[in-house]
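Researcher: Next sequence.
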Amino acid sequence: MNNGTIAVGPLLAVVLVLLAGAGAVVVWLGKIGTWHAVLTASARAAIQLTVVSLVITAVLRSGGLTVLFVAVMFGIAGLTSGRRLGRWTHARWAGTAIGAGVAPVLAMLVGSGLVPVTPVAIVPIAGILIGGAMTATTLAGRRALDELRARRGEYEAALALGLLPRDAALLICRPSAGSALVPALDQTRTVGLVTLPGAFVGVLLGGASPLQAGATQLVVLISLLVVEAVAVVVVVELVARERIPVVYSSS
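Model: Next structure:
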């Protein structure tokens, strides 16, 4: 490390390759998934971050490019979550859930002046919020679909009792949707005790005082809770209304 930052060079590449390989081996030996997914994800992350590192300087110098960059992040988040929910075509509904959480919170942060209207401030905050909303949307949506698929008999029984399809679906999948908020809740509860999240470290390394870094991280964590809660509520509603339909096995 040099002045608190990781040095870029051959050593970095070797360590990253060893870590990715170790992760793949653990997945393979533990039979907890496809080992090559670890290598693929690691390679994609390396390529994507390299590209972003090369273009971010230009992006941060232009308001127009900043807006475009945030829009691209949002679009990719919708596509990623939509694919995880079953199909690429679900991207618009996944994007609806993500946007419902991110848009009002980001607007409040910027409109209040808490987050300066500068690219160097908006890009990382928007990225954190979009990423959190994407994860919550995927987790809650998949859990809702799994619950409806596994408890199909209960759903049909609720319909037989006279419940509307939406109400019957919510009765089945809503109770488990809150599990999607567990990572954000745990991170917020243990911040400073177990982990020092990226926003805190980044602001601190940028020259701010520990108090300013702590305030920034607090804003990020509580904003994430709101963003993810809204995303979860919206995606569960979309599943209940069959905008994101359950695909049952042909058997």
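Model: The two ends are 56 Å apart (CA to CA). The mean pLDDT is 86.
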